[in-house]
Amino acid sequence: MAVHILGISAFYHDSAASLLRDGRIVAAAQEERFTRRKHDASFPREAIRYCLREGGIGGDQLDYVVFYDKPLLKFDRLLQTYCSFAPRGIRSFLTAMPVWLKSKLWLRNLIREELAGCGEILFCEHHGSHAASAFFPSPFERAAILTIDGVGEWTTTAWGVGEGNRIRIDAEICFPHSLGLLYSAFTYYCGFRVNGGEYKLMGLAPYGEPRYVDLILERVMELKEDGSFRLNLDYFNYCTGLTMTSRRLHRLFGGEPRRPESEITQRDCDIARSVQYVTEEAMLRMARHVHEQTGCRHLCLAGGVALNCVGNGRILREGPFDDIWIQPASGDAGGALGAALSVWHQYLGRERETGGGADGMQGAQLGPCFVTDQIERFLEQEHIPANHYSFSELAQRAAELIASGHVLGWFDGRMEFGPRALGNRSILADARKPEMQATLNLKIKFRESFRPFAPAVLLERVTDYFELDRPSPYMLLVARVRESHRRLPSESERREGLDRRKEIRSDVPAITHVDCSARIQTVDVRDNDRFHRLLCAFEHLTGCPMVINTSFNIRGEPIVCSPSDAYRCFMRTQMDYLVLGDYLLAKGCQPESKRQSIPSPAEIID
Is the Cβ–Cβ distance between 537 and 396 less than 8 Å? Predict the structure, then answer.
């Protein structure tokens, strides 16, 4: 009989579920994709239903259900923190306690109610789940492990070693000292939402200068050579309040936090650049220390900070490891998968197989798939006009449309697990066209104009365009465009501040950030044959082996999951065409009754 293990993460942000059958990943998905509530933190009922349906089993056929952290330990941390700072923090305490007393402390009962007849219920420590998600799917037989996030139960940073089917944690840094919370605090200070706006801070950083690095390291954070650190808690409010930063930090940096949606100043850019630099420096020092202590040739990364792809790129280029591997769902969603893998390998002692250089994530294509019959039925029921093609014809037609300047929604295969669309739930456009960054940001994604876009590039051509000599399948490494493809802006093209986004810096300007870098996704025919064939068709047509790949959603909404989600998003934006499996839809051919009004800024603030 096969052994089925369900992993669950919930209640903080990005709830998710994952299912293993005899140690192999059958399915994994975030709850937000089904409920359409971005970063949904509720118990992942819909994600669980999907996983069970994909596995062809009922809840009573689960041998083990495992939660990704230990609620009692987290509750202990909350109580001790509130007691330590009392009477400060009473508002935060009164806000948090009812939820804990009503549901979070009774999680075992909730699981029993939701999954009647399931097997043993287990709990994994938060950073243990991150470590397992980092090491067990990696291609390495032995590797150092580094997990960095906001906070789990008590731990905020941990490192150790994975070998075979075992993980050993050797050291940790504990709350309230947290690199993730430092980054989130400055995300909040620069006017972006915590647990969602950190990507914006990273994207804003290259527009600034690191003017505040010394101030941060002298007053706000003590960073040691081994990467360990302590925060000066006088500058933060997350221990006791409902905000991240204190008035003392506001005075130190010369003003109140930026109001969301207000104008971004050069000072905001400089602060973003400074905290990004400090974060990268901490990550680099940690990596060097872990290498020195473990002697491992390889490093695995997870936790929310491991989604900082600029820092990851520096660890790869400047760090001492031969190679690194990053869990594509590094945040709390990936904890559901890590917890399940931890039960299979560590609790049950089952052996782990590596070999061939491939990881165990299956290209992160672990979500729902909608086959041709399902898509055809949807189109017929909704009376939506579409043309059916063989895939060879469709790839050629899609390449022609992208090359002629059209923006294309691409819905194909299994939905990706993690925060990145990797060619199955994507919006695609021509990276060669300078105007495309502004078009996508303002007319399609409805987001800030400074946000950069990523290239999806054929793996076999990545070294021709970028200073990267290995695969980056999960869009988690930043590297510079090769000098042969860069160009200096002319005198008339040079800009200041955020206007620098209008400068043309390479022959693929729409994916080249202001520092001549790009967040790269390499596409391997073995991982995603259909997306690879599209890129090949585009290269054959244009000579360029890449397209812009951004997630199929608008600001404030999760990535699309179903054909109806994709069609709704398509009709709410100025996308020109939509691919649904083997069908091509043209915006101009859609019925007027299906057209939806473009959302107002108030509707899409996230």
Answer: yes
Identity of the amino acid at 176 = P
What's the CA gap between 532 and 517, in Å, rounded?
23
C-alpha span between 476 and 91 (Å, rounded) = 38
- We find that the CATH architecture of domain 179-325 is 2-Layer Sandwich (3.30)
Average pLDDT, the chain: 94
Using the predicted structure, report yes or no on whether residue 261 has a pLDDT greater than 80.
Answer: yes
- Give mean pLDDT, residues 80-102: 71
User: Residue 356's pLDDT is what?
Assistant: 72
pTM of the model: 0.95
State mean pLDDT over 530-551: 98
What whole-number distance in Å separates Cα of residue 186 and Cα of residue 243? 11
Q: Specify the pairing of strand 120-123 against strand 64-67.
A: parallel
pLDDT digits (tens, 9 = 90+) for 346-369: 999 999 988 777 899 999 999 999
Q: Kindly state the DSSP code that residue 587 receives in the 8-state scheme.
A: G
Question: Among the residues of 151-305, which ranges form H helices?
Answer: 179-189, 198-204, 213-215, 247-252, 266-294
Sign of the Cα torsion 98, 101, 104, 106 reads negative
Beta carbons within 8 Å of 498's beta carbon, 6+ residues apart: 207, 264, 269, 449, 450
Equal fold, 4-130+329-363 vs 372-604? no
- Taking 50 as the threshold, does the pLDDT of residue 375 lie above it? yes
pLDDT band at 262 (very low <50, low <70, confident <90, very high): very high
Are 558 and 37 in contact, with CB atoms under 8 Å apart? yes
| Sheet of strand 323-326: strand arrangement | 166-174, 155-163, 142-148, 298-302, 323-326
* Residue-level pLDDT at 499: 81
pLDDT of residue 89: 63
Does residue 604 surpass a pLDDT of 60?
no
Strand ranges for 200-271 from DSSP E: 221-223, 229-231
**CATH class entry, domain 4-130+329-363:** alpha beta
Topology given in CATH for the domain delimited by 372-604: DHBP synthase (3.90.870)
- The stretch 53-65 carries a mean pLDDT of 98
Which tokens sit at 103?
Answer: 């549901």
Dihedral of CA atoms 604, 520, 280, 498 in degrees, nearest 10, equals -50
CB atoms within 10 A of CB 415: 27
What CA–CA distance (Å, rounded) separates 10 from 69? 9
Q: Which residue has the higher pLDDT, 243 or 289?
A: 289
- CA 329 – CA 354 distance, rounded (Å): 20
Helical H segments across 136-252, by residue range: 179-189, 198-204, 213-215, 247-252
Query: In whole angstroms, how large is the CA radius of gyration of the chain?
Result: 23
Residues near 312 by beta carbon (within 8 Å), at least 6 away in sequence: 283, 301, 306, 324, 326, 476, 477, 478
The Cα 192–Cα 260 span in angstroms is 6
How crowded is residue 164: how many other Cβ atoms within 10 Å of its Cβ? 11
Tokens of 601: 């800024």
Q: Would you call the peptide bond into 87 cis, given omega within 30 degrees of 0 as the criterion?
A: yes
How far is 400 from 406, CA to CA, in rounded Å? 9
> What is the residue extent of each domain of the chain?
4-130+329-363, 179-325, 372-604
pLDDT tens by residue, 187-224? 999 999 999 899 999 999 999 999 999 999 999 999 99
